[in-house]
């Protein structure tokens, strides 16, 4: 690194300390915001809670039972009681408190005081508070059920004066959780940074109340704001001096025009010399969508269960969002250089070194921040290098590096605002921000490998010598499963032949149809010489072909307890049915093509090979896509809640059945050698997704948009010409696969 460049510094060191000194909050917003996200998630998953009859009953219970109860208890103790109401009542209370003016008027007109909420953040304490409330409720209201039983038919027809208003408020906030459903929003470092930015936001409301006609919050500030408002007494105390300005803050469901958003950005930059929007913190509303940006083409979901922790070789995949913004330094105009010959290059340190984003220095504004890079990448990319380069060098189109700055993800995570800035070459201020890494869907692909025998050893002269030339019995087509980083994690084997090969006398023969099973072994190959090795010992799942019932063309019985039925509707159309013989907790459906969140306007027109895995549960009665398979290319993507072995069995079984039904090698099953892969680290699969149009490559888009280009294999023709007689001829495998 050039010694002329100042050291990278945290924005907390350059932003004004006035907001920290002036704004004092009486509530632990970090803990409260985490609790708010969990509460909104519970509400979103409680589909019963959004039916109108039940909401009307919840409003009645809130107004006639809960508020008088909590008011009486507060009068006895002088402070909010440490109890919590049932979920339906708490939801109405939460929505009511989001309009502080109306809520205050309601409380003062009925109870002559503002009713506050106890700060209970620990889950055990919350459970206790609900149970304590149940005891008090049953004692005070013996004829009223603690739970909402509106579906029982015993409805109260009383309509309170606030019914229409509260029903509108509750209905308006039904999808509020979608704004805070990104998994990184629960991370402590994100919440701490959000609290600090919220205090800056309040500082602006207090010091510059007339600078904007409306104040547009970003998603992190919005989270803190609604959390703050949901604790009415704390909110009233903290914003007392800026009550007029808070009325100009845009609500979560309101639309925003671009002029108001631009005015807010400029005000923030003047006040703090920082860009207003950063990674994970888009402005809400505006012409770009409900929360400021189009939904990213990444299926992120908060998950508490990872079904794959039992597989030691399968490591989770973590993604983060990256924003790089640039602004000219004040001394740029005095530098005697030709800016037209200079440009900035942005490049990841690992996993996708082929990615190079260039921007001319002459395009960098001097009076505002400009976003140069916006992407999602794996945490394994380590960081990003920003280079100042000048045209020229050893070739006509070459360039020389004049200076550079490196932003490491680990260093950014240690920065209080998850943001760092620095100067490159004295010309440009570079500001990098990221979101905390969050677990993303698994990505697995199956690549061809050598034929193995019944013991799992590759059929090879090397193994024969090690076994003192004892013939290797049995023949299995083998596939190595690689994760997103190219690491081996499973081996899939498909039984094809029995017997052994001996020069001039014996050769393997096809096994019976019902014996052509599929097995998955956990672990990596044990290599004994070069690429020759033995499959891992542990078999974790199997699939066995069965005679299908009438109307179906194929049936597979899985060791996981599932049965997969396959039918060919037309030349390229497939239909499926899955039955679970051991559990009824959830239903699984396979749908041909890229559906739900995998359906995108930029998808290529090739739907054949894609199958969407949809799971139905009580929380998601209409179904939720938990995986995407491309059996033709042997590539799968799935959420952590899905078992990798089950998904791989689905993909392999479908490929086997389609190959048999069409009597052709639709998925390169006849290839029996490891094919050449792209150099590791050059453009690793799924390592980066660029959201803007700055890079025109299928490898920086979601893989399923153009799967053929991303999963392209090399050396297919060459591989088919180099098989030994010991492995078995093409005829053996064609007879086993196609009948």
TrEMBL record:
Domain GRPD C-terminal as annotated: residue spans: 481-638
Protein name (database record): GRPD C-terminal domain-containing protein
The source's superkingdom equals Eukaryota
């Amino acid at each position: 690194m050039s010694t002329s460049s100042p050291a990278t510094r945290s924005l907390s060191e350059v932003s004004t300390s006035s907001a920290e000194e002036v704004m004092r909050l009486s509530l632990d917003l970090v803990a409260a915001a985490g609790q708010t996200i969990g509460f909104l998630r519970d509400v979103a998953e409680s589909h019963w809670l959004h039916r109108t009859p039940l909401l009307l009953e919840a409003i009645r219970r809130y107004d006639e039972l809960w508020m008088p109860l909590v008011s009486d208890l507060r009068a006895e103790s002088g402070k909010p009681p440490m109890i919590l109401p049932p979920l339906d009542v708490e939801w109405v209370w939460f929505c009511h408190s989001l309009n502080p003016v109306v809520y205050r008027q309601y409380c003062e007109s009925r109870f002559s005081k503002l009713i506050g909420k106890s700060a209970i953040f620990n889950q055990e304490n919350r459970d206790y508070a609900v149970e304590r409330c149940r005891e008090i409720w049953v004692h005070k209201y013996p004829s009223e059920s603690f739970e909402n039983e509106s579906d029982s038919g015993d409805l109260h027809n009383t309509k309170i004066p606030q019914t229409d208003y509260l029903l509108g408020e509750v209905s308006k906030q039904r999808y509020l959780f979608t704004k805070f459903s990104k998994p990184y929003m629960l991370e402590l470092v994100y919440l701490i940074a959000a609290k600090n930015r919220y205090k800056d936001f309040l500082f602006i409301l207090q010091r510059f109340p007339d600078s904007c006609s409306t104040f547009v919050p970003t998603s992190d500030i919005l989270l803190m704001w609604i959390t703050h408002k949901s604790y009415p007494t704390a909110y009233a105390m903290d914003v007392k001096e800026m009550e007029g300005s808070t009325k100009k803050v845009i609500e979560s469901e309101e639309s925003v025009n671009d002029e108001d958003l631009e005015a807010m950005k400029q005000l923030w930059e003047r006040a703090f010399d920082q860009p207003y929007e950063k990674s994970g913190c888009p402005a809400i509303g505006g012409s770009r969508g409900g929360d400021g940006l189009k939904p990213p083409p990444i299926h992120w979901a908060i998950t508490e269960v990872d079904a794959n922790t039992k597989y030691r070789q399968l490591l989770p995949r973590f993604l983060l969002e990256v924003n790089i913004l640039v602004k000219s330094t004040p001394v740029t105009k005095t530098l005697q250089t030709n800016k037209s010959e200079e440009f900035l290059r942005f490049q990841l340190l690992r996993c996708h070194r082929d990615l190079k984003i260039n921007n001319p220095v002459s395009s960098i504004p001097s009076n505002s921040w400009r976003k140069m890079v916006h992407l999602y990448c794996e945490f394994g990319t380590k960081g990003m290098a920003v280079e100042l380069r000048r045209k020229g060098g050893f070739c006509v189109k070459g360039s020389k590096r004049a200076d550079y700055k490196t932003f490491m993800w680990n260093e950014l995570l240690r920065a209080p605002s998850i943001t760092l800035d620095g100067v490159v070459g004295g010309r440009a201020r570079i500001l990098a921000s990221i979101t905390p890494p969050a677990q993303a869907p698994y990505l697995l692909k199956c690549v061809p490998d050598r034929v193995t025998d019944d013991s799992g050893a590759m059929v090879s002269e090397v193994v024969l010598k090690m076994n003192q030339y004892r013939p290797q019995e049995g023949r299995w087509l083998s596939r190595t499963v690689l994760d997103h980083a190219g690491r081996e994690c499973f081996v899939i084997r498909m039984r094809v032949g029995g017997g052994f090969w001996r020069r001039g006398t014996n050769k393997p023969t096809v096994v019976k149809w019902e014996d052509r099973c599929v097995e998955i072994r956990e672990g990596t190959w044990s290599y004994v010489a070069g690429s020759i090795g033995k499959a891992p010992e542990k078999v974790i799942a199997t699939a066995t072909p069965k005679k299908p019932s009438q109307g179906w063309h194929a049936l597979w019985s899985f060791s996981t307890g599932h049965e997969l039925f396959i039918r060919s509707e037309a030349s390229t159309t497939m239909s499926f049915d899955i039955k679970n013989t051991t559990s009824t907790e959830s239903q699984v459906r396979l749908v041909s093509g890229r559906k739900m969140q995998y359906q995108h306007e930029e998808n290529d027109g090739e739907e054949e090979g894609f199958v969407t895995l949809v799971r139905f549960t009580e929380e998601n009665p209409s179904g939720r896509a938990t995986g995407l398979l491309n059996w033709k290319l042997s590539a799968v993507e799935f959420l952590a809640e899905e078992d990798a072995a089950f998904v791989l069995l689905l993909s392999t079984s479908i490929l086997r059945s389609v190959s048999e039904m069409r009597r052709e090698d639709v998925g390169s099953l006849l290839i029996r050698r490891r094919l050449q892969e792209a150099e590791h680290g050059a453009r690793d699969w799924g390592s980066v997704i660029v959201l803007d149009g700055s890079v025109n490559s299928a490898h920086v888009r979601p893989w399923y948009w153009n799967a053929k280009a991303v999963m392209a294999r090399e050396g297919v023709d060459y591989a088919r010409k180099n098989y030994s007689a010991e492995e078995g001829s093409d005829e053996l495998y064609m007879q086993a696969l196609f009948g």
